[in-house]
Every structure is written in C-alpha cells, then in structure tokens.
Design goal:
alpha/beta; FAD/NAD(P)-binding domain; 8-stranded mixed β-sheet; globular
C-alpha cells in the first residue's frame, strides 16, 4: 500500500501523524514552500460547536496522540449586535494561530510528522492516482472535489481581515452580529498575543450584498471595533478571500480517494470555523486505510453537524438587526449563557429544530 497525501494542512498532517502511529509512512505533497504558508489569523475551538467533546485539546492528545498548544483558553466571549452587548464567561474553548507563524497549528502538526513532505509540488491529483494505491485529498479547498462532481455547494462567502496591534486580553474573544456591518454574516476579534489580534468580517456572496463594495463594510467594521474596545487599533497586515466555498462532499471516499478537511466539507457553516472536524477527518481516513474503521461511518456525525450548522446559518439569515438585538440581549440571561457554557449540545437540537423549517422554504439543509 502506497499512500499519497495531497496537502500539508491540518487534515493532511493529522492523517500522516495517525498513519505513522499505525505503522504506515505516507508521502505528503504540498504545492507551497512550507506548512501554513498563508496569511496569519486567529481561530477558535469553541466547545459549544464540538459537543459532546468539551475539551478539544485534551481529546486530541488522549484519543489520538495529537498534541496541540493553543494561544490560550477562552474565559470570556463578548458579543455585540447593533444596540446590545452580551458577556458570557466560563470554559468556552481555546484560541490558536493559523498561517505563517511558528506557533500555528499547521507548524505544530508538521513538527510531529516524520514522513517526507515534498514542497513546491506540481503533482496533480490525477498523476498521484497513477503512482499511488491510495490518495488522501487534503488541499485546503474543495476545488478537486467539486471538479470531479463529488461536492454539494451551499454558499460562498467573502472574508476580509487584518492583524491589528493594540492591548488585548488573550483569554477574551469578541463577536459582532450586526447586518449593517456584515450583511447576513458576522465579525470577530481573536487575540493571538497580548499585543496582536486577528480581526475578520465574513458575509455570504448574495447579489444584494455585492451591491456595496467590501471596502465600505470593512471601514464600518473597523470603526465599530475600535469604538467598542475603546482604543485605536493599528493595522499591521491585511487579507481578503472572495468566494470561499461552503459545502460538503457527497461521498467521503470515492474509490481509493479519501476527501478530508475542506475537501470533505469541514468548515462549519454556522460561524465558519472547522479545525476540529478537519483534524478528525484526517484521523478517520488513516483509520480506514489501516483497517481500523470505515471512513463513511466514522464521519457520519460530522456530516450531521454540518447540516445542523447550515440550518443555524439559514435561520440567522432570516433575522433582522432588531431581532439580533433581542437574541444577543437574551444571552445575558441564565439560559442564554448555557448555550455556550453547558456540556449539553444545545446547538445540535436548535439546528435539528430549524432544519425542517428552513427546508420547507426550498433551501437545502
């Protein structure tokens, strides 16, 4: 058995780490010149999105011998709408760095891999199919899966963000749910140190949203973030991603090809984070390759989580700013805080409740 992994991101590297632990050495092909060769940004592992797992970092180390060091544990989330503010405290999850940073999750995983990584690779998926018995597609986007008609596209989004300099509490994250700033989307601020934070807005590429240039949304959001934090934040670096695809693979395994990470559809539509399922798809593909499980069965719950997240997003898109105000205000109550703080999977049941309501309008969930 000769295994090629196409992509040295989270899912591809997690697959390699697991294969090595099970006695198989793959070859990893990466078209960039190092792991995590992309813009630097902060991301979070929000416990409420990954139930029944309450501590993702401990779960990866104890269950799969994958060791990750986050920036910090999240003790507080501050959530803004147009006119309201909620503060939720507790053990909410972990923040981390992605991209061109030596402490990024990408580079941490690469340090745990012993297999050969061929950088600046020009090998195509079709070429690897001819040379290897099995191919793990972990390219970081769904282009290959979509091209071979094995991917259901649900929406695309525009992301615009920056690394900003200021004074931050690395145990506190911020979110904005205001459709004047980010129509049918959201914004967030995630500290990556005491002096730097990743600030991002994301919104779907619906025709009505594209009537306003992204620069206008970004300027509004930047001004609001500075005002809410009470400081002038200095922009150090910027990035923009257009038509970022959200969807899910129709068949997780097709012949001897395994679709993992974003090729699988690991980005959760609700808030746009997907590190937890991305790493799991890599692990699960390795289990199948080594006869330790069935990939389709192992990823079944991840597919359910995706559809629940899609229903949550569709449900939020139906709200307007006054309704978002009411939702954020309710998060200051006992039950509002429980959604993010409890070990019970409230978001799963909210998503299940919304799925038939959204589907009745002819929108796929």
């Amino acid at each position: 058995m000769k295994i090629a992994i196409m992509g040295a991101g989270l899912s591809g590297l997690a697959c390699a780490v697991t294969l090595e632990r099970l006695g198989v050495e793959p070859v990893i092909f990466e078209n960039r010149n190092r792991p995590g060769d992309r813009f630097v940004n902060g991301e979070i592992l929000l416990s409420a999105l990954n139930r029944p797992v309450n501590d993702c970092i401990a779960y990866f180390s104890e269950e799969y011998n994958i060791y990750l060091k986050p920036v910090g544990n999240i003790r507080k989330a501050v959530i803004y709408s147009e006119n309201e503010k909620a503060v939720v405290e507790g053990h909410l999850g972990f923040s981390n760095i992605r991209g061109r940073n030596p402490d990024s999750f990408d580079n941490q995983l690469a340090g745990q891999v012993k297999s050969e990584i061929i950088f600046n690779s020009t090998r195509t998926y079709e070429q690897l199919l001819q040379e290897y018995t099995h191919v793990v597609l972990a390219t970081g986007d769904a282009s290959y899966a979509s091209r071979i008609q094995n991917f259901q596209e649900d929406l695309t989004v525009t992301l615009r963000g920056a690394t900003m300099e200021g004074d931050f509490d690395r145990f506190t994250v911020y979110a904005w749910m205001d459709y004047y700033l980010s129509p049918k989307g959201y914004g967030w601020l995630i500290p990556i140190s005491e002096k730097e934070a990743s600030v991002v807005i994301g919104y779907p590429d619906y025709p009505e949203n594209q009537k306003t240039p992204s620069e206008i949304y970004w300027e509004r959001f930047y001004e609001r973030v500075c005002r809410d934090l009470g400081q002038h934040l200095k922009i150090m670096d910027t990035f923009q991603v257009t038509r970022y695809l959200f969807g899910i693979v129709e068949r997780p395994r097709l012949g001897n090809t395994f679709f993992v990470g974003n090729c699988f559809g690991s980005i959760m539509p609700f808030l746009g984070f997907g590190q937890f399922p991305a790493i799991l798809t890599g692990v699960y593909a390795a289990y199948d390759l080594c006869g330790e499980g069935n990939y389709e069965e192992l990823t079944r719950q991840l597919r359910k989580s995706y559809y629940n997240g899609l229903a949550l997003r569709r449900g939020l898109e139906k709200l307007d700013n006054p309704q978002l105000d009411l939702m954020v205000k309710s998060m200051n109550t006992h039950w509002g805080g429980k959604v993010l703080n409890s070990s019970y999977d409230y978001l799963k049941w909210i998503g299940l409740f919304l799925r038939p309501l959204v589907a009745s309008e002819g929108r796929r969930v």
